[in-house]
Write a structure and sequence with these properties.
Strand content: 15-25%
Oligomer: single chain
Bound molecules: alpha-D-galactopyranose
Helix content: 40-55%
Shape: globular
Number of helices: 11
Strand order of the largest sheet: 5-4-6-3-1-13
Length: 378
Amino acid sequence: MEMENRIKDEFSKRFGAEGALYASAGRINLIGEHTDYNGGFVFPGAIDKCIMAEIKPNGTDKVKVFSIDVDDYAEFGLEEADAPEQQWARYIFGVCREIVKRGGKVGGFDAVFSGNVPLGAGLSSSAALESVFAYALNDIFNDNSIDKFELARIGQSTEHNYCGVKCGIMDQFASVFGKKDHLMRLDCRSMEFEYFPFKPEGYRLVLVDSVVKHELVGSPYNRRRESCERVAAKLGIETLRDATMENLERIKSEISEEDYMRARFVIGEKQRVLDVCDALVKGDYETVGARMYETHNGLSKDYEVSCEELDFLNDVAKECGVTGSRIMGGGFGGCTINLVKNDLYDKFVKTASDKFAQKYGHAPKIYDVVISEGAHKC
Ligand code: GLA
């Protein structure tokens, strides 16, 4: 409510009118990391942290937008040459352009937005920002004629073409399709998905945010993707979705050690997602947790997207007897996702906070995961 009121106050102060309110969520991912751009499976859900925007057409060909959290204003036109300077505004500009490129309509509008998705925590604040604008502009200017998958793709293309990140589809998909109390298993090759009710009896999901964001010099995310693409090309397949460990072993001597390690992680991760789905159906959370630790290990050793602080948090979780724990999202900082038995919860949160603070001089942030709705009109 507080966020909504702040947005409304700011909007009426700046634009002297009232617009329509929309929101779209950040996401968690239970398992299936760096598999989306490899045609594999992911298992995300939207969370109760969102970006909310008030928007109103202004009858001009200009977008006028204020970010409460950055405390910054941007104004831009809708032609390709009108890209704004500010990075945060490029997400919105990109969404407008991607709608136009697909033959959709976007006119000028006024907007104010704010959010409570922590930045740089691996919870996809940028996908939430893209999705809330894609969803709203579809409603306002296009009679909702753009389907939801295309809205997710609009966000993804925005990252590719306006923000320099060759991301997969998971974050935007989760932000648009999220459903309360449900995770979604998405097959990123066929784009078929299934909602899984997620209310683990006796367990809680908690995020421990290291509040560390490592500088992404030289686009390490994009380089991971390139490694996977090189191995797939070598195997003569479209994506690593179709690769097996045996295939990989066969070409081991023809690829770099680094590419080999990246592919080994992705091929293993594909199976882990399927194992977790089976285990969830049976209520076997021990297996879910075991796979989460394996994923962390692979992300840390083979994919090399973890960092000292997150490996430390993972070790603490293990020492405390937490059922499952792993780094979540793209990596290079951010948070761990932990599957914790109810009666261990308090002890784990306290131990992780104390030990981390002692070692790194600042406390981590703790977020309880509440699986919530994706993009919607408020
Ligand atoms: C980022 C990307 C996603 C996905 C994850 C890793 O969040 O935006 O597409 O690749 O990293 O699973």
